[in-house]
Write a structure and sequence with these properties.
352 residues; Rossmann fold
Length: 352
């Protein structure tokens, strides 16, 4: 059964094209051993002639051949040439893991944009979080899946170190997110609800307006780039399978911008000396109009790094071709991590 669409939810890919998915959217020996090694080698050289030459270490693979993230849960198009590669739109090059980790470590705010039902995306989100912690960072973790008015329940769960007390509701697939929450609790990372309250958005569609002061505080009245605004409107129409009345588009745009603004506000106000990490849908992590845009435009934050986890499409083997999935001229992330697809189900199949 197709899940109901939520006002302001991140939009889906462009209309389905032929052959595409609608969902588209060795180490040296320790130092302590080296003295013994050279002592024994000297004895062998004297008694038995020259020591054998050490085995040559294979040169590392170039970044264009490195594949990261497997083994995969999803299997559709797992042999696709982009699977496991991380693409930098700015560098127009693939990244290896050290380069990616360095970029993440240098950012104060790390945004991890998922497909909500993709298990591999959530596993990779936890891996990124683990990498930051291993390198000494202790960021806060902000979740789109929790409304800000649910924070007391999150605090109770963190105090009890019981992830189940923070279980997401409202249609989110909690088992996919629990390992991330559990890791945060285990390592003492503060966890925060990040989303604008759904109840207030729902009420706004039933005649209760959202105060201008609140919209201003969340950056909703910041001038949007014209092309970004038009693309967002079209994505909202597409995500509703063409059934969204044009009279309602403006309200959905406002809802999306309220959520981006709220998530940005939570990242800034809850950040620790180790920064903050956002777990959210790819639509919120895009840097042309999502949370990174709000951080840069309203908050003047520049140390932001966003990753979009993207399922590969049939016949699309060039990274930049995926910009069209986002109705953009270029991929709107600092890095794109390609994964296999979970399925090719068309959520609009029953509405045509």
């Amino acid at each position: 059964m197709r899940k109901p669409l939520i006002p302001g939810q991140a939009p889906s890919a462009r209309p389905l094209q032929r052959g595409e998915s609608h969902r588209g959217r060795g180490l040296p020996p320790p130092l302590a051993y080296r003295g013994a090694f050279f002592f024994v080698a000297a004895i062998l050289t004297t008694a038995c002639g020259p020591a054998a030459k050490p085995t040559t270490t294979a040169a590392p693979k170039p970044a264009s051949e490195v594949r990261l993230g497997g083994p995969w849960t999803a299997t559709l198009r797992a042999d696709h040439p982009l699977v496991g590669r991380v693409w930098s739109p700015a560098r127009r090059a693939f990244l290896d893991r050290p380069t990616l980790d360095d970029a993440l470590f240098a950012a104060r705010f790390v945004l991890l944009g998922e497909k909500h039902d993709a298990p591999d995306h959530h596993r990779l989100q936890r891996e990124v979080l683990e990498s930051l912690v291993r390198r000494g960072r202790k960021p806060s973790v902000v979740f789109e899946m929790l409304d800000v008015d649910e924070q007391p329940r999150v605090d109770e769960a963190r105090t009890a170190k019981d992830p189940e007390k923070a279980a997401f509701s409202q249609g989110w697939e909690w088992p996919l997110y629990k390992p991330i929450v559990a890791f945060a609790f285990e390592t003492g990372l503060p966890v925060f609800a990040g989303n604008y309250p759904r109840a207030k958005i729902k009420a706004s569609f039933h005649g209760t307006p959202i105060a201008d002061e609140e919209q201003h505080a969340l950056g909703v009245d910041l001038p949007y780039p014209k092309e970004s605004s038009a693309a967002l409107e079209q994505e909202l129409v597409d995500s509703h399978c063409g059934h969204l009345p044009m009279a309602h588009v403006g309200g959905f745009v406002t809802a999306q911008r309220l959520r981006d603004g709220q998530l940005a506000e939570r990242l800034v106000t809850t950040a620790t000396p180790g920064g903050a990490v956002l777990i959210a849908g790819g639509g919120h992590a895009r840097n042309d109009r999502g949370v990174p845009w709000v951080l840069a435009t309203q908050r003047k934050e520049t140390k932001v790094f966003s990753i979009g986890f993207v399922e590969v499409q049939a016949g699309m083997t060039e990274p930049e071709a995926y910009a069209a999935v986002y109705h953009a001229k270029a991929l709107p992330f600092d890095a794109v991590w390609f994964t296999p697809a979970l399925d090719d189900d068309d959520p609009c199949a029953g509405m045509k």
